[in-house]
Amino acid sequence: MKPVPFAYHRPASLDEALALLERYGADGRVLAGGQSLVPALNMRLAAPAALIDINRLPGLDGISLEPEGLVIGALARHGAVEASPLVARHAPLIAEAMPHVGHRAIRTRGTVGGSVALADPAAELPACLIALDAIVRVTGLGSRRDIPAQRFFRGTYVTDLAPGELVTAVVVPPIGPGWRSRFAELARRHGDYALVGLAAHCRVDGRAIMEARLAFCGVGPTPVRAFRAEAALSGRRPDPDVVAETGRALDADLDPPGDVHGSPALRRHLARVLLSRSVARIVG
Amino acid sequence: MDEEIQVSLTVNGVAVSRRVEPRQSLVDFLRYGLELTGSHVGCEHGVCGACTVRVDGAIVRGCLMLAVQCDGCRIETIEGVAGTGEVFDLQEAFAQENALQCGFCTPGMLLTAQDLLARKPAASAQEIREALSGNYCRCTGYHAIVEAVRKTAEARRRA
Question: pLDDT tens digits, residue range A137-174?
């Protein structure tokens, strides 16, 4: 199908974009990479009066190392993040997750800010940001907020973003010594949305896991922190009995949905598989 | 509200200037506006890969970019890369391996395969499968397509 007609704006500055957001309110939609919005337009699931194309806003596509951490601009494309030596070094979890985002042609266009603002429950990046205790930076007319990722994602396609605000960057705080990470997911085909994905970020001492931050995607309306499993792992060597105990704790953390792609029981099973594989990799 | 907007871009090396409706996709612009019908329209939601074209050197879904966004961009379609001979050996290999049946997916397959081989000349069969996993062949001729790409990669490495 073809989209319903809409007005098109391509603001040249952030202030101009924010003014347009204010002017159109709920009738305007922000066009970033367009890899989720344009399908919705084509299928007429969305019919905004106006698109505000932010692709040419200057200075929002950078990836830089700052004292506060690794700052990834909202317009950084998934492909650029995947190829960035800075991301590979300072947020290897995100670098490892990027190849799982759609397909190459999708990653050419898709943006970090778009993934964050859309908040698809199966998306990889939100889970990574929660595991890394990252910050989502948003800007409105005359306001700027730094929101911890853990609080930003509030439901299926629901975020803390207020009307008139734009995501401008994500900030990954500096990673301390001993922290190792692993991103893994299981999907029916490469490039499909994950049945289950796991962003694992752990502080390791020898073969013991001292602290663990585990964020699962595809198992709930937002990325799900597995607090019980984290507690079961922490301060211990992940021997087979500890891994089994962690898997049982994980069962209590998750309440995954069932759909045409997989039952809740399948997702629980796959989550345990991902957890044991990732832990082995992290201490290996 | 949706008045036409002037865009200027180059398509297969030719400068083009047109007025487009904001809602027109890049692939519809190429097909209807420029009569470049080698890029195909399949699912129109980014799943099938039949509309794959290059924008500023990188492959994109032609159904998920608006023509109006391509102002100032350099577009290459299957007509362009076939015309310059860039994918001649891939095309030959597709014919040799019987890797095109109805041919609907072929332009997208060729552009995606060419993108992979440019980045990873020594791509394994598994990597080829992963790279092509975003391009559907509803004749299900995948094995022959992977073989054609693999043999092209091999021949290019020998050359």
Answer: 999 999 999 999 999 999 999 999 999 999 999 999 99
Topology of domain B5-81 in CATH is Ubiquitin-like (UB roll) (3.10.20)
Q: Is A3 in contact with B23 (Cβ distance < 8 A)? A: yes
Going along chain A from its start, the domains and CATH numbers come out as 7-52 (3.30.43.10), 63-172 (3.30.465.10), 179-283 (3.30.390.50)
Please, where in chain B does CATH 1.10.150.120 lie?
Answer: 87-158
Q: What is the CATH topology of the domain spanning B87-158?
A: DNA polymerase; domain 1 (1.10.150)
ipTM of predicted assembly, 2 dp = 0.95
Interface of B with A in 6-65 (CB under 8 A): 21-23, 25, 28, 44-46, 49, 52, 55, 58-61, 63-65
* Residues in A touching B73 (Cβ below 8 Å): none
DSSP code of A36?
T
> Is the C-alpha dihedral spanning B128, B130, B136, B139 positive or negative?
positive
Strand partners, A203: A179, A211
In sequence order, the 6+-apart residues with CB closer than 8 A to the CB of B131 are A103, A104, B112, B113, B115, B116, B123
For A54, counting Cβ atoms within 10 Å of its Cβ (0-12 exposed, 13-18 middle, 19+ buried), the class is buried
Report the gap between the CA of B111 and the closest CA in chain A (Å): 10
* pTM, rounded to two decimals: 0.96
